[in-house]
Amino acid sequence: MTDVKHIRNVAIIAHIDHGKTTLIDSVFRATRTFRDNQQMAERLMDNNDLERERGITIRAKHCTVSWNEYLINIIDTPGHADFSGEVERVLSMVDSVLLLVDANEGPMPQTRYVLMRALRLGLCPIVIINKVDRPQARPDYALNKTFDLFIDLGASDKQAHFPVLFGSGLDGWFVRDLDKEPHEGMDALFETLIEKVPPPKVDQDGPFVMQVSTLAWSDYIGQIGCGRVLSGSLKEGDEFTRFV
Predict the structure, then answer these.
(1) Residues of the chain with CATH 3.40.50.300
(2) Closest C-alpha among 20, 148, 25, 169 to residue 87
(3) How far apart are the C-alpha atoms of 239 and 9, rounded to whole Å?
């Protein structure tokens, strides 16, 4: 069983087409989540036909990647205003959010709503300025507009002093300083996650309690419940009681 100190829970929030799902696919590649002989379709976490057709994520998806001795649980939250209710519902599962911002457009109106909910829950976001490789990229503009948004939403001093990464999810690289660091690799992203996102608070000695946030169905293993463990632990073969 992984030590709780080596677990990080984080959600990604972004406007449509700001590169959220592409970023997650690059995380899969960087952590070698799949073997070399396995094929990974683009927009891997957009796993139904409507999502692939529209290029957006409708329902929250969950995945876990390993980096060094850490387990990072990632929730790819919906990026469309029509599904903002699901975003709000799953924010209670995480300890931080990655706020993904297009380097040309800056934060968009929908990002404002989701960020507001995250800030009110006391989460301290990590800001990622994405698509800085585009000819029309304006990373300084995007960063300044993001800071203005934090202030406008009443962020605390701690929340407003957010860590920032710049890079390209499509090309699979992120850095803290565009001018001083080589534009390659994802280590800066993982290091920032480990350093800035606190481990989950779990009473490991208490009875098993889990807050289920989403339900899914797999033809392979049946019904799946995804959520946050509040206390205790569970192993294969254990029985538990469900309260509705």
Answers:
(1) 4-196
(2) 20
(3) 25
Q: How far apart are CA 129 and CA 137, in angstroms?
A: 10
Helices (H), 39-138: 49-54, 84-90, 109-120
Question: Tens of pLDDT along 24-80?
Answer: 888 888 887 765 555 554 444 545 554 444 444 444 567 888 999 999 998 877 655
Instruction: Give phi and psi for 40, each to the nearest 5.
Output: -125, 115
Greatest distance between any 2 Cα atoms in the chain: 56
Instruction: Write the DSSP string, 25-66.
Output: HHHHHHTT-S-TTS---SSTT--SHHHHHHTS--S-EEEEEE
**pLDDT band for position 114 (cuts 50, 70, 90):** confident
- The CATH number of the structural domain formed by 4-196 is 3.40.50.300
- Asked whether 238 and 231 are in contact (CB, 8 A), the reply is no
Q: Are strands 7-13 and 96-102 parallel, antiparallel or unpaired?
A: parallel
pTM: 0.82
Burial profile 5-26: b = 16 or more Cβ within 10 angstroms, e = fewer: eebbbbbbbbbeebbbbbbbbb
Which of these, 2, 8, 72, lies nearest to 201 by C-alpha position?
8
